[in-house]
Here is the input.
Amino acid sequence: MEYSDQKIPKEIVISICALDKWYGDLHVLKDIDLDVEKGERIVIAGPSGSGKSTLIRCINALEKYQRGSIIVNGVELTDDRKIIEKIRRGVGMVFQSFNLFPHLTILENCTLGPIQGLNLPKDKAIEAALHFLEKVNIPEQASKYPGQLSGGQQQRVAIARSLCMKPDVMLFDEPTSSLDPEMVKEVLDIMVGLAGEGMTMICVTHEMGFAKEVADRVVFMDQGQIVEQNNPVEFFTNPQNIRTKAFLKQIL
Here is the structure.
């Protein structure tokens, strides 16, 4: 019997090819190529204005791009509303601001999407919401309103709400940047837990400790381009690009 040394090919969940985006004359994303494997945890780092958030917002059509392609779970993103909705069902997103509906309870915030978007029966949606609120350690807050919760708690609700849609991929756009320092850890701990369960994640963050602990790959962006990418050990101890070196020198 012969044995092959070839590695089993990984499943590509997101494939971004030759992506370009402009805001008027401003070229904010320049020829971006990035493949994300199933179960992979990617941290996107870089200075403010480098295009990090714009890139992940393009993945679920919150931003339009002018050139290139994005394929999510084998479906190419287009302007077709049905295609956009199909892709969004598989891609959860957590923002800097929590984007919770202030007039709805925590439980209602978490069940709205599954009931309206997934046609889940109300009792099943409630069951799932309570499960994920338990996962983010705030089941006791289910009947409260967002304004009654701390910032860290609201962000954990936002994570639970995304998980209720049973996404294949979670996108995090600076999820701790609007939090008080003492609240940052409680949100990062939840994200570390998700990573440990094998969730495919792309996270834009300045939390380099999180990148070191969780990331399979750190992608460094500057001026709309991917300048360097590597595993965390090599990225932090042996950066290759002069811009990467300057960035790490500033923040570490």
